[in-house]
């Protein structure tokens, strides 16, 4: 059996008596929520900023409520806790905004961690802990799951929740409300915590839920967007499964084991979202939506009954005529395929289980069905050559079907990350986490050049692929935040396929958009976070967005 690349504790199952207790509680309280009890501890869930841009037509993804934070807030709301989500993704000074909405207004703080928001989380937690040392701070999400030791050693985090959090947060808050943390924390699975002397301790893994049908219907109205003048946007992020059967070298998964909702559960969830929130579009973020043919056909039959448009992620190897036809008939607008590269040696090193032939076959099958094919590509994977990179550029320009390109990121917890640390390409884990917070997925980004190709070669390829973008599925998006920023107007409309979908001049005003970089992000460029030779290999020819803001006067922090 092949050695698993992720931490072994992520492959456990949540199936002991305590797990079953909270699974049953989730089920029951989804049907009959407990009225909010003001005597219970107030819980605030903080969603911080990300530098990531999205191409024209995909902006909805950056602003939408997402599942992780929604499920955590929903299970606590259903259990009677006073719950509030603080969303500062697009504030000009998110640190001050978050601080002002937290201090004096909560009893427990939960912080959502992403691979690209470590400095914000670290600084915000330090300020909150200084102001209110008695308020416990819990961290959850992909980043803290991949590097819990950093959060326990380098931040004011009191408890790190590892992998899935729905069961763990119920157990933690029940214990906290009863005043039992001192005796209970050593027995609560799936966390890191501090003992009375402040030393970090880790409990046994909780593991993944076996039955996703226990998850509640998402309460999107808990997001502040629901109280805004425009109300909730009708595009959402959802899924029917967790996990992935693959083990790609560059991809981190907090839930690596594949679990799926039943068609009946999916039908109930879709009916709820449609009736309560009037959704008209869903991005299904299952890592491999069409992995199992029979399951895909069943899920498409469910989606078909709810009259929505949708998109999803999948693998080129997991597509055929029955699947794509069912997806088309149920409203699928575009399928995003993890192509990454066409190079044989690149794909083998990345453990993609794919090939150029599989990619071309999937593309033709998708096009023949009348569905759009969206390539997701990476510039700078190990083993990439000038020849294979050039071939990928020609592929993108010939078919004009690109949805996203980015430079390789060494995501914490992945094989690529471990290799970069061992090789000294990453000077320190803290430096790397800081640097990830300025990656915007733009061609002027700095990058870790693990391929050894000339920087100019990588940048030229990136720009040409970027210019081969096609329109995203929501060109009529209306919920743009006030502080959104827009990048790289492009007067070239691309192919007729693009103009017939997005209209002429579809990207004349901008090709990508995102929230603003956090003030003082210029502290985290490669010249400050990497050894000189690493910085020179991936940041010499262009100034990234963080470097361009170096002369900007930042607002005062609290």
TrEMBL record:
Give the Gene3D superfamilies listed for this entry. Aldolase class I, Cobalamin-binding domain
Residue ranges of domain B12-binding in the record? 42-183
All copies of domain Radical SAM core, residue ranges: 230-445
Entry GO MF terms: 4 iron, 4 sulfur cluster binding; catalytic activity; cobalamin binding; metal ion binding
Domain of life, per UniProt, equals: Bacteria
What keywords tag this UniProt record?
Answer: Iron, Iron-sulfur, Metal-binding, S-adenosyl-L-methionine
Q: Cofactor(s) for this protein?
A: [4Fe-4S] cluster
Among the Pfam families in the record, one is Radical_SAM
- UniProt key word Metal-binding: yes
Record-level GO cellular component terms? cytosol
Protein's name according to its UniProt entry? Fe-S oxidoreductase
């Amino acid at each position: 059996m092949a050695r698993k690349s992720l931490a072994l504790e992520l492959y456990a199952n949540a199936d002991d008596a305590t797990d079953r207790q909270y699974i049953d509680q989730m089920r029951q309280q989804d049907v009959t929520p407990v009225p909010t009890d003001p005597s219970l501890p107030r819980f605030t869930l903080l969603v911080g900023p990300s530098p990531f841009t999205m191409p024209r037509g995909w902006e909805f993804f950056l602003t939408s409520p997402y599942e992780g934070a929604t499920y955590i807030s929903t299970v606590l709301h259903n259990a009677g806790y006073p719950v509030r989500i603080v969303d500062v993704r697009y504030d000009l000074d998110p640190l001050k905004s978050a601080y002002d909405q937290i201090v004096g207004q909560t009893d427990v703080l939960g912080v959502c961690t992403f691979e690209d928001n470590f400095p914000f989380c670290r600084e915000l937690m330090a300020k909150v802990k200084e102001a209110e040392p008695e308020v416990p701070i819990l961290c959850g999400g992909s980043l803290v799951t991949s590097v819990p030791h950093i959060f326990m050693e380098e931040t004011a985090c009191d408890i790190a929740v590892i992998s899935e959090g729905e069961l763990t947060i119920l157990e933690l808050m029940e214990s906290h409300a009863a005043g039992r943390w001192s005796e209970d924390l050593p027995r609560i699975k799936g966390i890191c915590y501090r003992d009375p002397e402040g030393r970090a301790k880790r409990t046994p893994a909780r593991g993944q839920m076996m039955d996703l049908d226990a998850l509640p219907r998402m309460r999107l109205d808990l997001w502040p967007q629901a109280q805004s003048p425009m109300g909730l946007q009708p595009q959402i992020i959802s899924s029917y499964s967790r996990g992935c059967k693959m083990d790609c070298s560059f991809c981190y998964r907090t839930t690596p084991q594949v679990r799926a909702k039943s068609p009946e559960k999916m039908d109930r969830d879709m009916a709820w979202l449609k009736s309560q929130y009037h959704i008209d579009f869903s991005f299904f973020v299952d890592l491999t939506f069409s992995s199992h043919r029979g399951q895909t056909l069943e899920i498409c039959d469910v989606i078909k009954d709810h009259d929505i448009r949708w998109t999803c992620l999948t693998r080129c190897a997991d597509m055929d005529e029955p699947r794509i036809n069912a997806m088309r008939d149920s409203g699928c607008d575009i399928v995003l395929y993890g192509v990454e590269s066409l190079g044989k040696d690149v794909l083998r090193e990345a453990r993609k289980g794919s090939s150029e032939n599989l990619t071309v076959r999937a593309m033709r099958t998708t096009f023949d069905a009348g569905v759009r094919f969206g390539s997701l590509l990476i510039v700078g994977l190990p083993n990439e050559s000038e020849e294979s990179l050039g071939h990928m550029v020609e592929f993108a320009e010939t078919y004009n079907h690109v949805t996203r390109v980015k430079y390789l990121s060494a995501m914490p917890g992945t094989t690529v990350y471990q290799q970069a640390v061992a090789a000294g390409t990453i000077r320190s884990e803290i430096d790397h986490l800081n640097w990830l917070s300025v990656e915007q997925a733009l061609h002027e980004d700095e990058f870790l050049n693990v391929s050894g190709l000339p920087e100019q070669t990588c940048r030229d390829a990136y720009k040409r692929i970027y210019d081969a973008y096609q329109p995203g599925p929501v060109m009529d998006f209306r919920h743009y935040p006030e502080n959104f920023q827009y990048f790289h107007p492009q007067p070239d409309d691309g192919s007729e396929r693009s103009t017939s979908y997005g209209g002429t001049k579809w990207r004349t005003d901008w090709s990508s958009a995102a929230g603003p970089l956090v003030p003082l992000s210029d502290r985290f460029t490669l010249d400050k976070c990497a050894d000189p030779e690493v910085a020179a290999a991936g940041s010499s020819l262009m100034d990234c967005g963080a470097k361009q803001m170096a002369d900007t006067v930042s607002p005062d922090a609290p």
